[in-house]
């Protein structure tokens, strides 16, 4: 099904105005597998002129798409969900090869995305406007009625990260399209093959020409040009705080929805179910090798139960399977790049040299870093504050819940937090005080279910995602006031 997006010499094409087009400049970027460095394909490094043309077509196409009925848009997106499932194995395989995600997580990313798309359609169909009477405001009589409907914003620029190349692209595209916008998708370069396959699925499902267009190229080269392009009406970005901050600095009068980095804390109190806490910490901290924005990234445990918790976590880490996802079902696979692995390794070395206690791990083979746990990490160590985006977790021992809250809130990040306790009072006490978008009680930090609101505060983002919230963010109220002449 996907052959036509792949040209000569394994060069991939971009979807522009309903056509799959190659690079005009003949400038391509090699996409190599993090697993074995094999060349998976080459994507165009698009020029400014190519970007201009994609945005121009998106602008034109949006006018017609805005007038397409919601039920017609929904039919097309339902078809896209069906096609995703039909091609689940192919997509999961390319995901494994391109971003080294394990087989089970790759397959579940595809099925979760199909569910996301269908739920988005159903939600959009059921969103309604409102009508307001003028006479509830002092000085007005009942001659005025405001009818408030939702209007699309225009061209949405969707920029997705490497770690969920299908899901975090589709979770921008589907709500944007259902709200009546056209979309320019700029995926992470490592992840762009998955994203081009996804775009071809939407195209095959019947998304009209120009309504969805793709732009490949390094963010460091074309990012500033696209994000400040006058043809863009909304930017939906997921990625690092560094790039998100840059986008918010250089853009002007364009609404932004940003999901950025995190340093989610799991707080374990003396009255916690330690078995439950340990299981959640291990799956939350190490799945996809810690390369999730919502991964548990530090453990704040009350001293009294720390030894017992550490022992339980260590036993569960020993059970994690490390290796190449093509060979076997693994929990820990190689990190996305050598730079990423070097960064994580540097954090590990620093934490070791500063005297923290290495409980398990601390081993590296190429870009494969074994799941690593440090105990007695102190707040003067980098690992207490920095986001590794890799399989390493610090344990910081605290005297009580107030100290845990204080350290948790000192972070620049505020994505999620988790508290493990069997006391409802303690759970609500901590949940109330954590400066984050979401607090999980007795569960790992995680984004789903996808219709829940998902948002970061402080350096973790701005605006709210989640199916209904994303549709609302990518549309605006438009009021028409009827003035009754009596
Ligand atoms: P990244 O380096 O910030 O890249 C994200 C996206 O931005 C990619 O498409 C990248 O393209 C693009 N980009 C880079 N420079 C740009 C620029 N100047 N202007 C516009 N776009 C630019 O992040 P990543 O390494 O892919 O993902 C890891 C980070 O994302 C972590 O910090 C993680 O916490 C965060 N994340 C957050 C969430 C969340 O929901 N809160 C979800 C997933 C990931 P190139 O690939 O071409 O550079
Ligand atoms: O990496 C960021 C994703 O938004 C996290 O989603 O919690 O379902 O893994 P997840």
From TrEMBL:
SUPFAM superfamilies: ALDH-like. The keyword NADP applies. Pfam families: Aldedh. Gene3D superfamilies: Aldehyde Dehydrogenase, Chain A, domain 1, Aldehyde Dehydrogenase, Chain A, domain 2. InterPro entries: Ald_DH/histidinol_DH, Ald_DH_C, Ald_DH_CS_CYS, Ald_DH_CS_GLU, Ald_DH_N, Aldehyde_DH_dom, ALDH-related_metabolic_enz. PANTHER family: ALDEHYDE DEHYDROGENASE. This is NADP-dependent glyceraldehyde-3-phosphate dehydrogenase.
């Amino acid at each position: 099904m996907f052959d036509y997006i792949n040209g000569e010499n394994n060069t991939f094409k971009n979807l522009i105005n309903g056509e799959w087009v190659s690079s005009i400049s003949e400038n391509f970027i090699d996409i190599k597998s993090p697993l074995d460095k094999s060349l998976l394909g080459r994507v165009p490094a698009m020029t400014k002129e190519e970007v201009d043309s994609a945005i121009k077509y998106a602008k034109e196409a949006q006018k017609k798409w805005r007038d397409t009925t919601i039920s017609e848009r929904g039919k097309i997106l339902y078809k896209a969900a069906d096609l995703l499932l039909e091609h689940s194995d192919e997509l999961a395989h390319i995901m494994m090869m391109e971003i080294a995600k394990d087989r089970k997580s790759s397959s579940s990313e595809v099925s979760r995305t199909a569910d996301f798309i269908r739920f988005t359609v159903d939600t959009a169909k059921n969103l309604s406007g409102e009508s307001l009477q003028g006479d509830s405001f002092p000085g007005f009589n009942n001659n005025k009625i405001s009818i408030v409907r939702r209007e699309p914003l225009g061209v949405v620029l969707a920029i997705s990260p490497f770690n969920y190349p299908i899901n975090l692209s589709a979770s921008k595209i589907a709500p944007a399209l259902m709200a009546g916008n056209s979309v320019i998708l700029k995926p992470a370069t490592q992840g762009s093959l998955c994203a081009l396959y996804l775009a071809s699925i939407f195209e095959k499902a019947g998304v009209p020409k120009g309504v969805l267009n793709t732009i490949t190229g390094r963010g460091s080269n074309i990012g500033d040009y696209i994000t400040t392009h006058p043809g863009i009406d909304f930017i939906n970005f997921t990625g690092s705080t560094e790039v998100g901050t840059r986008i918010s600095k250089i853009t002007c009068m364009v609404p932004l929805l940003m999901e950025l980095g995190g340093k989610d804390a799991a707080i374990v109190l003396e009255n916690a179910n330690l078995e439950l806490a340990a299981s959640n910490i291990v799956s939350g901290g190490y799945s996809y090798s810690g390369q999730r924005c919502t991964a548990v990234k530090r453990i704040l445990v009350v001293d009294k139960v720390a030894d017992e918790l550490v022992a339980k976590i260590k036993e569960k880490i020993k059970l994690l399977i490390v290796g190449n996802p093509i060979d076997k079902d693994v929990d820990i696979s190689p990190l996305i790049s050598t730079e990423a692995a070097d960064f994580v390794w540097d954090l590990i070395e620093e934490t070791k040299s500063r005297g923290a206690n290495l409980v398990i791990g601390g081993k590296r083979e190429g870009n494969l870093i074994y799941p690593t746990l440090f105990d007695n990490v102190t707040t003067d160590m980098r690992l207490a504050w920095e986001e590794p985006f890799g399989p390493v977790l610090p344990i910081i021992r605290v005297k009580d819940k107030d100290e845990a809250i204080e350290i948790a809130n000192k972070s620049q990040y505020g994505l999620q937090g988790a508290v493990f306790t069997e006391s409802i009072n303690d759970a609500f006490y901590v949940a109330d005080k954590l400066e984050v978008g979401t607090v999980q009680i007795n569960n790992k930090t995680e984004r789903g279910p996808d219709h829940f609101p998902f948002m970061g505060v402080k350096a973790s983002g701005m605006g709210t995602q989640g199916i209904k919230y994303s549709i609302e963010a990518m549309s605006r109220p438009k009021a028409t006031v009827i003035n009754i002449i009596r």
